Amino acid sequence: MSRLLDGKKIAAAIRADVTARTESLTAQGITPTLAIALPTDDESAAWYVRSLQRAADKVGIRCLVEKPAATEIAASLDTLSGTADVHGVMCQTPLPPGLTLAEVGAHIDVAKDVDGANPESLGRLAAGVADTFAPATAAAVLEILHAEQVPLSGRHAVVVGRSTVVGKPAALLLLAENATVTVCHSRTADLPAVTRGADILVAAVGRPKMLGAEYVSPGTIVIDVGTNPTEDGGLVGDVDADAVADTVEAITPVPGGVGPVTTALLLRNVVVAAERAATR
Ligand code: NAP
User: Could you tell me the distance, in angstroms and rounded to a whole number, from the CA of residue 17 to the centre of ligand 1?
Assistant: First the structure.
């Protein structure tokens, strides 16, 4: 039976660190502040933003939510980026039709781009520029691997998915750790043959339980980024956890794996941005 990589435990340790650093900033008269633009009435987006507000509140981070109209998103992000006492800025998806995250993300100052939405942040990540914020979900993949002391250098990491928010930045972060990285997508030929060669398998596809027993090998460490809603209101990953349980060495559960670490890292990025602003 494979080992479960407990995202909740890793997230709790991050939150404890964030709380201590927030207290230190607050003692200096600085309240770390995250501003979220929420340009949608989508119920799951609203739920996620409420959950972020609650999580921020618990660690002493102020969280402001704006609801700009489609035509006001860019101006809203420009204004928040230019507001001195806002340290982190995010734009929640889904976006109104016709807009891309790259377009709106370009209006978030990279110093405040705590979820790595500005294409410039992705470019800086690719170029190895220090102190760049990666998208929190991609960073969560690496955080879990580090917390579990999974060796990366020289090992074969296979990332399934090439989105700019998860797959690509996760691949760049793994490459920076000297893993040998293969990035797969919907046109990859014989995907199971590729993923069976993985020491570390990162699934970021968005297809419930797509990766079954034939996609894994003994000893593989699986990070399942997928969060696919089920009919009964639950969540399942992109990996069929039951089918691979007897083969892989370890796997992140869904829920309770990448998700809580992502939220904790977003909050840590806000504190990091506030600390940097304080010393500038
Ligand atoms: P996305 O933008 O839809 O990208 C999906 C990727 O999967 C694309 O690159 C696509 O390939 C690839 N793909 C689709 N079908 C495939 C197939 N049959 N075989 C191989 N590759 C295939 O999704 P995303 O935003 O990256 O999100 C991926 C998953 O992560 C979703 O379940 C999402 O809910 C979850 N997620 C979780 C968190 C968290 O905090 N836990 C945060 C963000 C996202 P093409 O490029 O060729 O189309």
Answer: 30
Do the beta carbons of residue 152 and residue 177 sit within 8 Å? Answer: yes
**Distance of alpha carbon 126 from alpha carbon 175, whole angstroms:** 9
Q: What is the pTM of this model?
A: 0.98
Q: Helix 119-127 to helix 167-176 angle, to the nearest 10 degrees?
A: 20
Cα–Cα dist 160/191, whole Å: 9
Q: Which of 49, 114, 186 for a ligand 1 pocket mutation test, highest count of atoms within 8 Å of Cβ? A: 186
Task: Give the DSSP H or E segment for 146.
Answer: helix 136-147
CA 26 / ligand 1 centre spacing (Å): 38
pLDDT bin (cut points 50, 70, 90) of residue 137 is very high
Count helices and strands (H / E) in the chain.
10, 11
Residue 161 Cα to ligand 1 middle (Å): 5
- pLDDT at position 167 is 98
